[in-house]
Structures are given as C-alpha cells and as structure tokens.
Design goal:
The protein is elongated and about 135 Å long. Helix 1 packs across helix 2, helix 3 crosses helix 4 and helix 5 packs antiparallel against helix 7. It has nine helices and six strands. The mean pLDDT is 84. Among the domains are: 77 residues, Arc Repressor Mutant, subunit A (Orthogonal Bundle), CATH 1.10.10; 81 residues, no CATH class. Strands 1-3-2 form a three-stranded antiparallel β-sheet. A three-stranded antiparallel β-sheet has the order 5-4-6. By secondary structure, it is mainly alpha-helical. The structure holds zinc ion (ZN). The site of zinc ion has 8 residues, from loops.
Amino acid sequence: MKLPNKFIEDLVREVVGDEAVRLVDLIKGKKNVSEFKIADKLKITVNQVRNILYGLNSRSLVTFTRKKDKKKGWYIYYWTFDEKKARDLIIELNEKRIQQLNKLLEKETSSIYYICPNDDTRMNAENALEHQFKCPECGQVLIQDNNVVKIDKIRQEIVNLEEELKIIRPVVKEKVVKVEKVEKEVKKKAKQKVAKKIKKKTEHKAVKKKIKSKIVKKKVNIVKKEKKKQEIFKPIEKIIEKEPEKPVEKPSRFNVLRLFSKKK
Ligand SMILES: [Zn+2]
C-alpha cells in the first residue's frame, strides 16, 4: 500500500521543516532525481536544495547516488525518496508520542491541579498547599484547574495516532505473511527432499527386488532343469523300480526276533 500523501507531508514537516515538503512532493515516486533539476523546478539554489536534502538524509528519508560530470569535473548527486523508511519513521514517532501521552494522561488523572488566573502558573495540589494556594509569581489566589477538556484532548490524540498506525501497519503484516511464505517454501523443499530420498530408497529396493527376482528366476530355471533331468531319469528309476522284487523271506523264528528287536 502506498503511504498517503498527508502522512508523508506531516512527517517531513515535523522532522525537517516546511521547506522540505515541496521538495519531497517533487521527488517522491521517482528515482535518482538530479539536484539541479530539483533546484530548477523549485526555483531555489542548488545549495538550498542540498541543505534540505541533508536534513532529509539525516533521518534516512532519502538516498543518493553520484556521478562525475566529465566536462565540469564535479559530482552531481541524484536523490530518491525512501518511502519505506518514511513509513518506519512514522510508526516509530507515533509509538513514542503515544507513550508520552499515556504518561501525561496518568499524571492529569491522578491529581487535582491549581492554576493562576493571571499568568497560568499551574501546579498540583501538593505544591499548591505548600504555597498556601497563592501564585508564587504574582500572589494571586490559585483556583482549581478544570482539566477535563485537557484530558479529553489527550485521549483524542492517542486515538488519532492509533488510527494512523492502523492505516500504516497492514504493510508490516504483509511482511510477516511473506516471511511465512518463505518458511512454507523451505518446509516444502525439505519435504520434497525427504520424498526424493524415499523414492531413491524404494527405487533401490525395486532394483534389489529385480535382482532378487532374477536370482529367483535363475533358481527356478535351475530347479526346472533339475526337474527335467529327473523326468529324463524317471523312466530309468521306474525301470529300476520295476526290477523284480527280491523274494520275500519267509518268516523264520530268527527273522521275527530280529523284527521285534528293530521295533524296540
Ligand atoms: Zn500568577
């Protein structure tokens, strides 16, 4: 969000002076404006322009670059108004002012004040008692100061300053959002890294599996070959199996005994 003109004007008037308002109005939103051009447009001397710019520069409200004039041999300065710094400075000054006003508010509401109707000499109740309620300047009897209006004014000023901060601060929030975005991206990248690692691992596993399955296939082939071999040899075995059985021994006493002992 662009900083409202009124905010810039009030700030520049406060920290540098009236003469700086026109100059800032001329260069804001532009980049690297020659000081000669500024002098020409404002119809003042280059030295006057420089004095104002030094004032702005002392509060970091302007930045500059310089270039050597080859013909004349001196440097020409080019100036840029720093809106971001202006915003930061407004926030800083408003916060300070709100703090001061809160202290003043506390002081005004925590005591009764007395005032001289002649010269506005003012003091709290304790001091007025010490002076027996007579003005130390002119001897006039002091009257109680009705500070309700004053307190109202202070409160109103605090409200106004806070309103200004509300208008300016959303940009600060944008910054926070940006930071969050960056953090999110970092997290996302970290996640992607982990995902890559997992992918690599699984790929590695897959390769391993492939190798394994190849080995298994090989084994299966070997087994198949074995089986084939066996099948080739089977008939022989069958033939062998079909060999005439040995004549069963007729159980003799001796044999039966032998069988028994085997069972045991
Ligand atoms: Zn007096």
